[in-house]
Design brief:
Largest sheet: none
Order of helices and strands: HH
Radius of gyration: 13 Å
Structural class: mainly alpha
Distance between the termini: 20 Å
Number of strands: 0
């Protein structure tokens, strides 16, 4: 498990970024998984976190 300690201000920015992305991708032709990925990416970007996935 990874624990991040962030300020209330940062957490509010993260939530705002996620909400903005949810609203921006709210369209019947955009699949829920795609929307979820966009929202997660917005959260990670706001927290300045990069995740690298290996094939093994």
């Amino acid at each position: 498990m990874l624990t991040l300690n962030v300020s209330k201000e940062t957490w509010q920015k993260v939530q705002k970024a996620a909400l903005s992305e949810m609203l921006a991708t709210h369209h019947p032709k955009i699949a829920p998984m795609v929307r979820a990925r966009h929202v997660v990416n917005a959260i990670l970007l706001e927290l300045k976190i990069e995740i690298k996935v290996s094939d093994g």
